[in-house]
Amino acid sequence: MQPLHELLNRIRWDPAFAKGKFALGYIDRVAQEEKVVSLGAITVDERAGMFSFVDDEGMARRIPLHRVRTVYEDGVIVWRRPDPRGWRLT
Predict the structure, then answer these.
(1) Is 31 exposed, middle or buried (0-12, 13-18, 19+ CB in 10 A)?
(2) Strand partners, 70
(3) Which of 26, 72, 61, 66 is nearest to 49 (CA)?
(4) 1, 8, 42, 62, 90 from 45: Cα distances, Å
(5) Residue spans per domain, the chain
(6) What is the pLDDT of residues 37-78, one digit of tens each?
């Protein structure tokens, strides 16, 4: 499986590959469910291992990249991390 950071770099730097609309699905520990955010709405800080975005309520969120479980292109799963903790994603 391709590491997440390599996939994100390919989306960022390969215009032939990144023609679709991408989104990240991450585990929200409070809601205990997957939340999906558009890749265009986030800022990735690879050094810190985080991504950030402003949610629907206007709150700034910082999410560790290890909580990303799914990458979608045009609504279709193109990458999924195996989850040893047993999170059930639909």
Answers:
(1) exposed
(2) 25, 80
(3) 66
(4) 22, 11, 10, 10, 27
(5) 4-80
(6) 999 999 999 899 999 999 989 999 999 999 999 999 999 999
Is the sign of the CA dihedral 90, 82, 7, 67 positive or negative?
positive
**Edge-to-edge strand ranges of the sheet holding 43-45:** 43-45, 50-54, 60-64
Q: How far apart are CA 13 and CA 7, in angstroms?
A: 10
Q: Which fold has domain 4-80?
A: SH3 type barrels. (2.30.30)
User: Please, are residues 81 and 69 in contact by the beta-carbon 8 Å criterion?
Assistant: yes
Q: What is the pTM of this model?
A: 0.85
What is the dihedral angle through the alpha carbons of 51, 6, 25, 44, rounded to the nearest 10 degrees? Answer: 10
CA distance 45 to 89: 25
- Structure-token pair, residue 82: 């195996």
